TrEMBL record:
Gene3D superfamilies: Winged helix-like DNA-binding domain superfamily/Winged helix DNA-binding domain. Keywords: DNA-binding, Transcription, Transcription regulation. It comes from the Bacteria. This is GntR family transcriptional regulator. Residues 21-89 form the HTH gntR-type domain. GO terms for molecular function: DNA binding; DNA-binding transcription factor activity. Pfam families: GntR.
Length: 141
């Protein structure tokens, strides 16, 4: 993918600003899906954070966060001064393993933030269980 031609990527990313799902999560999941579907191939260069943010009309930090989490999950690699590229999937890793890693990274970051704010693990667990229950109930409707 040519990083100067944003059309192929931008035309495939659909953001729902009313869904309640954070925009960075939507971007991250959709890039993962494009990799899994073979639309984005290992070695393809992604647009810069700034360019993609401008095209999607979202905050620069939103795309930066999505790219950072994708990088931490081993899906992309950002090389200072060179750009951001889709990584070659490790032979031992299946797409569902990569997704699980991304979720684990998100969970760890969330837990660290909660602990920094002074929440105790029991408080966190209680709130998380309530959120999951509410989420399941809203999915059933």
């Amino acid at each position: 993918m040519n990083p100067n031609d944003l059309t192929p990527l931008v035309s495939r990313i659909r953001l729902d600003f009313r869904s309640g799902v954070p925009i960075y999560t939507q971007v991250m999941e959709q890039i993962e899906q494009l990799v899994e579907a073979g639309v984005l191939q290992p070695g393809d260069q992604l647009p810069t954070v700034r360019a993609l943010a401008q095209e999607l009309r979202v905050n620069f930090n939103t795309i930066a966060r999505a790219y950072r989490l994708l990088d931490e999950a081993g899906i992309i690699s950002t090389q200072q001064g060179r750009g951001t590229y889709i990584l070659e999937a490790r032979a031992s890793e299946k797409p569902e393993d990569i997704r699980a890693q991304a979720l684990q990274t998100l969970s760890q970051r969330f837990l660290q933030d909660a602990l920094r704010l002074g929440y105790q693990p029991d408080e966190f667990l209680k709130i998380l269980e309530k959120e999951i229950t509410d989420w399941r109930q809203s999915e059933e409707k």
